């Protein structure tokens, strides 16, 4: 069991794709205890501060009742093969990261604007082709009539 020489505590909030989740972690000499809480909409800093004042003690008690887990363990695996580690790192880097709802909303708006602009460009090209074809047809008719 760890001692209380230099413990540290962190509270991290992230978006899982459906919910905003807060994770309370207590680190102590290579061991970790944690508790998790789910929020509804994205909490602001003031809301988080108020929530922690009201419910932080209970969250800390839940973490204190949680079992100690060795920090940084990767299943039952010891040292990892460097090539496997490199492949896993490349796979993690290629995987899309969880982003905030605001970032996703901005990205969706940009995509919709790009799609609308592409549609407008396609329509303009079609109109220009139609206009040029009309001019060619008028010339051909004029030639046919001997003008």
From TrEMBL:
InterPro entries: UCP021328. Residues 119-130 have a biased composition (Basic and acidic residues). Residues 131-147 have a biased composition (Basic residues). Residues 96-105 have a biased composition (Low complexity). Residues 70-147 are annotated as: Disordered. It comes from the Bacteria. This is PF11208 family protein. It comes from Propionibacterium acidifaciens F0233.
